[in-house]
Write a structure and sequence with these properties.
alpha+beta, five-stranded mixed β-sheet, 29% strand, nucleus
């Protein structure tokens, strides 16, 4: 009722050389859909990350044409008919897209996300998954462990941050008490904001463990995030 609904669709589409491309589409429909555009994620083992991102951008462009009317079915039909052209274009407009994305980045800026996880039962697999998502989406930051506190701090393009959140909330990243794969239900978005001039940009994504709260605090202070730490981290200890 408050978060809308999310669903996955897998479709097989003929590509340029008449080979089948399996597309994994994820749609998150907010509560006020279709007055608000859905969040869309595109994945395929047969396409590059850049091609998937390009396809996502094209789908969002199409979605804007259908604002205020149900659109998911139309978007699926559109991608079935236009996939090969999108892939072909993806190579030819590479330079142009780089220029455009720089323009978008300047306008939208770099964003930051701070998440709190309640627990990780399958820790090794979970950590590996988070590292892969951060790498695929070109996000930097930290996965931080201190006692029972688990925090994920991410920096990157706002669209990639949003896509990370969709993956985090809808993928089976952990196991439940009986050992069955499950989605992450115990996650809190502590903060989502634009990176300011006083904030230091992380150059990589790292997994770090801290033995004391002071060590964790220093990590935040070094990144110019003292206020973020004092506002959100101490309350987690209560």
């Amino acid at each position: 009722e408050t978060h809308g609904i999310t669903f996955r669709i897998q479709i097989s589409v003929k590509e340029l050389l008449d080979t089948d491309v399996l597309l994994k589409l994820l749609f998150h429909l907010p509560v006020n859909y279709p007055s608000t555009l859905p969040d869309i994620s595109v994945n395929s083992d047969q396409l590059t990350r850049a091609q998937c991102m390009d396809m996502k951008d094209k789908l969002l462009e199409q979605a804007k044409k259908h604002l205020s009317e149900p659109m998911v079915h139309d978007l699926i039909l559109w991608i079935q008919q236009h996939l090969k052209y999108v892939i072909k274009q993806s190579a030819t407009v590479c330079n142009e897209k780089t220029t455009l994305s720089k323009g978008t980045s300047a306008e939208d800026g770099i964003w930051m996300l701070l998440l709190h996880l309640d627990h990780m039962r399958a820790k090794a697999k979970y950590v590996k998954t988070v590292e892969k998502w951060a790498s695929d989406l070109r996000l930097t930051g930290r996965l931080m462990f201190m006692g029972k506190i688990i925090l994920i701090l991410l920096q990157g393009d706002r669209s990639n941050i949003k896509e990370y959140l969709i993956l985090q909330k809808t993928s089976k990243v952990d196991v439940d008490s009986s050992g069955k794969k499950c989605r992450e239900k115990m996650i809190s978005v502590l903060c989502e904001t634009k990176v300011q001039s006083q904030h230091k940009r992380f150059q990589t994504f790292e997994v770090k463990e801290y033995s004391t709260l002071d060590e964790l605090q220093k990590e935040f202070e070094t990144a110019g995030l003292t206020t973020l730490f004092s506002e959100f981290v101490p309350p987690l200890l209560k």
